[in-house]
Structures are given as C-alpha cells and as structure tokens.
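Dear colleagues,

As part of the handover before I leave the project, I'm documenting each prediction I ran so the next person doesn't have to rerun anything. This entry is a single chain, and its sequence is reproduced below.
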Amino acid sequence: MSSNPNLGFDPSSFFYASGNITPTGDARSYFLTGGDLLTVDEQKKFASPYSGPSGGGFGAPSGGYGAPSGGFGAPSGGAPGFSAPGGFTTPGGFGAPSGGAPAFGGPSGAPVASAYSYSAAPRPDHALQVAVRRKTVNNGKKTLLRDIDFNVDTGDFVLILGGSGAGKTTLIRAILGESKAEGSILLNGQNLYTNFAALKSQIGLVPQFLTLRLNDTVQNTVMDAAMIRLAGAFNKKEIAQRVESVLAKVGIQELRNSLIGQLSGGQKKKVSVAVQLVGFQKVFICDEPDSGLDAASRKQLFDILKEISMSGKIVMVITHYPDDAINLFTKAVVLAKSTTDKSGHLAYQGNIPGALDFFNVKALQEIMLQINPPYEGGKGLADSYIQKYERMVRH
C-alpha cells in the first residue's frame, strides 16, 4: 500500500499488527463501511494507562472497556481488551459477544494476537489543543485575536459563539491552518503549523457558502472528493463502498442520482458534510451549516453532526441558532470583542450548563445579549465577562 500525497500521511499508519505498522483487512473493512480509524497514537491513548488491576482494558479488571471479561464492552468471547496480554486485537469482539477484531469491530477474527506494551508511550492530554497568543493583520498593526486557549476531546460537539467582530471566522481559519496565528494548534499532540502538510487533511471545513457544482449528481460529487482523498490508499471498489456508507450515514443515499442544483438548502448542506466525511478528517469545522434552513432541517442537520462527533471525531459549529442544539453540544467556546484593545478574547470555555450559569442566562442565545455592544442590541458587557473569565482561570 503506497502513501497518497493527498492524504498527507501513509494510510498504513492506521493499522497495528505484531508491533509493526501494517494494513489489515478488518481495519480497512471497518473504515470502508463507515467507521473511523484509530491512529497508533490513539490506540495507545486507550491502552494501558487506563488499564484495570489485572491488565485488562480501560478500567476493567481483566477485560475490555468496562467489561469483566471479553472485548470492548462485551460480556464474553474476547480476550482482554486494549492492553491485555493478548495485545491490541485479539479474538474477542469490539462490542460483540464473540468473534471479530476488538480494535475495529471486524467480522472475521483478529488481525493480530501478539502482545505489545504501551505503558510508557507518551499520550496527548487532548485531541485538539488551541493556544493562540495573537492573530494580527496589517503587518501587526491590528490584533484580531488575543489569548485564546481551550482544549477539545474526541467526541466533543463544540459550539463557537460570539458577536460580530469577535473573531469567530479568524479563529476557524487559525485552526484550519489557513491563516496562522502566533501560538500553536496541536492535533493529537502534533503541531499543525510545523506539520501542516501531514496534518491538513485531518481537518475539514463545511463552509457557510457552498461551492458544489450544481450540474453534478450527489453520487459524483461525493465520489470525486473520495477519489482525491483516498486514491492510492484504496482501490475503486473500496472507495465506492466508502462513498455508499457515507451517503447512508448522512441520509442522502436516495438522492444519489439527483443534481446538486435540484436539491433543497438542507440537502445541499448534507452533501457538503458528506464531502468532508468521506476522507480521514478527525476535526470538522462547520461555519453556519444551518443558515437558510427551516427549524426541522436545522434539527436534522444538528442530529447528523452530533452522530458524526460520537463516531470518534470532533465537530465544531458556528451557528445563529445555538438553542436548537443545546442538548447536543458538549462544550461552548465564547468569544467577545474587548472595547479596550478592540481584539477578540475568550469570555468562556466549558460545558453548556456552566456557560448558562456563568452568563446568568437561561438560553445560549441570551449570551449574545450580554456581550454584544448596545448598538447591536446588547448590554455591552463584553469586557466584564472577559475579565470574569480571566479571574476564574487564574483561580
């Protein structure tokens, strides 16, 4: 299997066998049918640092992920889980009572059976670590962002909230690496800015304004994206299988032969999500994906994005309708523009109940009323909340 320059990394690094990095059939099958692959570093993250007293997986006494024995959450049929003596992928089942490969859920047994110790392996504390000291323009004369620090874990569904001019789009571009800031963006412990060629393919953007070809079909649109990102790692039959699984996951398989120009706004947004999901992206950034959609379509789209985050990815969303998904978001990042230095600052980052309490509001939309300036209908309390958050962090 050769490395694909469009991936930015050798796809064989996603598979582990006998202490060496090799491709396996079960892992490939898992990805092609809609699953998300674990890098070796991510495998280590779930290995022995979390083991139970008998060497089992992830806090279990002798088995997988919270199970007394067997595979990842399974009551029986598996050898000990992620960090057991049988190694990473033993005859137990990843959530199955028997059979399959614990690491990937494959149906045909274990790709490996040898032991490997991860106990001394370094592990990033968070999947995504954002540390922006400053982001300037005009040769440093104007500062758009200052002191933006937050961490995001795999599976998080993150709301990015902020008023006009607070720096939401600037932050997105910094995380994407499109417009580098002073500081660092770490993805699984690796610096995006110093390893951009290798990591850029792992962060995808669903833009506010779609750039899909209106005279192309849904199937061809997603297939073209898949060929660009996966050719060289998978053959055409496998790529077609991956496309089919993504169409089903996003709920647009029945639209496969429809022209993009014939779709509704909500359907086009789903296609845009599918175009990003078809590759190896670990982080999805969605810039107002719900703009122009009715309430029912917004809810459906948010449900899809939440499902994507729960499949082992990070999803970050800018939206003007945050309360539509208040029960889905796991974290909020709130930016506010200071009246003193005219820069965007972090006014809060944390879970959703904490955000409501911090701003003393009952709905996420009301946060905007607190921090927006009076000329935009707000109370003009941006500086107060920036300072409040700084004090909270110091203590």
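Residues 284 and 315 are 5 Å apart (CA to CA). The longest strand covers residues 142-152.

All the best with the project,
I.
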